[in-house]
Design brief:
Blueprint lengths: L2 H18 L14 H8 L13 H17 L7 H30 L6 H16 L23 H4 L1 H24 L4 E9 L6 E7 L3 H29 L6 E8 L13 H12 L7 E5 L5 E6 L7 H13 L2 E11 L9 E2 L6 E11 L5 E5 L42 E3 L2 E7 L6 H9 L4 E6 L8 H17 L3 E5 L5 E3 L5 E4 L6 E8 L6 H5 L2 H25 L1
Parallel strand pairs: 3-4, 4-6, 5-6, 11-12, 12-13
Antiparallel strand pairs: 1-2, 3-16, 6-8, 7-8, 8-9, 10-11, 13-14, 14-15
Length: about 550
């Protein structure tokens, strides 16, 4: 196979995956998008014409570079350097995952079987990407169905890991079907006959014709179609038979539409807060229970030890008292550090003491009670730097898009806001991308989810739309209604089936009011979380260890 052919196939795979991605992609392409890449690995040559080995790593890197670049380029709008680093690193991680699949399949199965290893290693990679300090699960394969939520109602049992298994299994079957068709083309097969023709003095033979190549691949084609369509049919049935559970609660979400580059750090804290009040207040009725404002809507630097004395807090309490509501709002807060050696600890300029900076969600009402949730899933390179020893010198280069420079302090627990009958999971921005993390709120009693975010940093790009779509998956996984307040597009409401009940336009100051059902029942996924990821990671580690041991023993 010529190098230009290999490069073309690698590019084709990347283009197909990108073309299937939300929010304007053709989702069905994902079921064949990995086929060219699987073909390259399965048909790799030990040596090429010029004596060099095929490099599966670089071919797969090209595929993943195209995918990452075409689907997450919009990060450039907020951090050009960070976007380049993110795309290159994520492409490298994905290529390494594919190379490990290639290595183990070659060592254990001699490249004659073992396609299932592709599923195991990608699940293990996605699980790692959900849980380590360089987390970036935005492109986990199961997220591709956020734009086709009626196809994956069974995520309430599997989470997005089920989507990854579905996609890769379909691609493997599609490749096997194609392979069978190509390998069994119509040919003439000579069959020698004993003896020679006495007159001609030459051997005679009879010819038989193989069945049409398509006939031999029909069973595999039917299996591929079954794997693709049966989950969709099951999901459609679940979708149309599901009924919203629980009593209703009326919620107002604010979208103040404050320009993060031109206004957010120039307006006073009072002006920003008043914009939130101004868009929300006209929609409040006597039935309204909650008002939700975006991430970082309170711009005072609030010390947690003295939180009750700040003007923004007292104005919020007055707003709650006048309208008889509870107010869920984002803020930037500070707290004294308990350990100066903590990676997130910051030193005072004029004292030998240390403090933390947080990205915070607050629950405020007209009483003295203020509930606090500190953001746990911080965005790498934006809100935090990994705490690994070799990265400590650059920890303060992280830029928090909420307004604080340097690595933030995260919270090790999930805090549910207690409002009696209503138990609220307050997800701050990036936290809504982590399915297993959201289940921890549900396990702690959350029966409704609020997402507060500021997606204005990315402009009118696929970024804010992809982020909104992912909330639909969280709704399905846990069967929880979601109210989403974004600084600008897209704010809205999502029901327990993942339907968008109502949503706002981008770059428009507005507020929305709707009712959501409050559900106390837990789904299978809510109870067990990322069990598929955990199981696959365990098996993948065993297979990888076996592969390395086998390789070493063969060399000896």
């Amino acid at each position: 196979m010529k190098n230009i052919t290999k490069i073309s196939l690698a590019l084709l795979s990347g283009l197909l995956i990108a073309a299937s991605w939300p929010t304007h992609g053709f989702t069905a392409l994902i079921f064949i998008a990995f086929v060219p890449l699987i073909f390259l690995q399965d048909n790799r040559q030990q040596t090429t014409d010029n004596g060099h080995r095929d490099n599966i790593f670089w071919l797969s890197f090209l595929t993943f570079l195209v995918w990452n670049s075409l689907t997450t380029w919009w990060v450039w709008n907020s951090t050009p350097t960070g976007s380049i680093a993110m795309i290159l690193l994520n492409s490298t991680f994905m290529a390494t995952t594919f190379w490990l699949y290639h290595f183990t399949r070659t060592k254990v199965f001699h490249n004659k079987g073992g396609f299932f290893l592709l599923i195991l290693f990608f699940l293990a990679f996605e699980y790692l990407h959900l849980n380590w300090q360089l987390n970036w699960p935005w492109l986990n394969i199961g997220n591709v169905f956020s734009h086709k939520h009626t196809w994956v109602q069974w995520y309430e049992f599997t989470g997005t890991a089920g989507g990854t298994i579905w996609v890769l299994l379909a691609n493997i079957l599609a490749y096997k079907c194609l392979q069978t068709t190509v390998n069994r083309q119509q040919i003439l097969v000579p069959e020698p006959v004993e003896g020679k023709d006495q007159n001609l003095g030459t051997s005679t033979s009879s010819v038989t014709e193989n069945p049409h190549p398509l006939n031999s691949s029909i069973p595999q084609l039917l299996l591929f179609l079954a794997v693709v369509f049966i989950p969709i049919v099951v999901s459609k049935i679940m979708y149309h038979t599901y009924e919203e559970k629980g009593e209703t609660v009326e919620v107002v979400v604010a979208q103040p539409n404050i320009d993060p580059y031109k206004e957010e750090f120039r307006l006073s804290a009072a002006e920003i807060l008043n914009r939130n009040f101004g868009v929300a207040e006209p929609l409040i009725t006597e039935n309204t229970r909650f008002v939700v404002s975006p991430e970082s809507s309170i711009h005072e630097s609030i010390w947690l030890e003295k939180i009750k004395f700040y003007r923004s807090i007292n104005e919020s309490k007055l707003f709650c008292r006048n309208n008889n509501v509870s107010y869920i709002v984002g803020a930037s807060t500070l707290g004294m550090a308990s350990d100066k050696n903590d990676f997130a600890a910051r030193k005072f300029y004029d004292a030998d003491e240390y403090y933390y900076s947080y990205n915070t969600a607050l629950s405020i009402n007209d009483t003295s009670d203020i509930q606090i949730h500190q953001k746990s899933k911080l965005t790498p390179g934006v809100e935090m730097m990994p705490s690994w020893w070799f990265m400590r010198p650059i920890k303060n280069l992280a830029i928090d898009l909420g307004g604080t420079v340097g690595t933030l302090k995260s919270e090790d627990k999930t805090t549910v806001f207690d409002h009696g009958r209503y138990q609220v999971a307050p997800l701050i921005c990036y936290e809504s991308v982590f399915g297993g993390y959201v289940t921890e709120f549900v396990k702690n009693g959350a029966n409704i989810i609020f997402v507060i975010t500021n997606d204005g940093w990315w402009g009118d790009t696929p970024g804010h739309r992809q982020h909104f779509e992912m909330s639909k998956l969280r709704a399905i996984e846990n069967r929880r209604g979601i109210a989403r307040s974004a600084n600008t597009g897209i704010s809205g409401f999502i029901n327990q089936r993942g339907d968008v009940v109502e949503c706002s336009n981008y770059w428009e100051p507005t507020a929305l009011r709707s009712t959501l059902n409050v559900n106390d029942d837990m789904t299978f996924y809510s109870r067990h979380g990322d069990y598929l990821y955990r199981a696959a990671t365990f098996v993948a580690c065993l297979v990888l260890c076996f592969s390395f041991v086998t390789s070493i023993l063969r060399k000896k």
